[in-house]
Input
Amino acid sequence: MGAMNVQMYCGTGMGRSAAAIGQGIRFACSGKTVFVVEFLKGKASMEYDYLRKLEPEIKVFCFDRFDASYSHLNEEERREERIHTINGLNYARKVAATSECDVLILDEALDLVSLGIVDVKELISLIEGAGDDVSLILTGTDRCEKLWPYVDRVTEISTLKQS
Output
């Protein structure tokens, strides 16, 4: 077992999520089922609201409790949000293991490691436990190089010029 195809979009430049969603749209156009699980952006994210317009072809899930992104929460709110984040990751693990979709996008999942919310072993376990007919796409700023042996393609997005 293990995911059929695993891609990462990482780096500090803008467009990681857009690249992943673009791949998801491409897959959906060919009749594949696509699930997106968003992490750390807050349930009031404009991206989240817009992505909901793509349903039912692309199903979007957000387990965040707070409207604000994780980076804007106080420490008490972050502790609570970590529980919801882990619930979201557990949901993603179940979806991947049962092949409930053809493509699973884990938006900002790489940053769960750098923020100390989960250990990289959790993401490795998710990849290894995925059905062999599921493709995974993970995004985040963190390069998460310990994942690279389990990934087919790593794309780093960086900003070369900004006015």
User: Anything to note?
Assistant: The two ends are 46 Å apart (CA to CA). The longest strand covers residues 5-10.
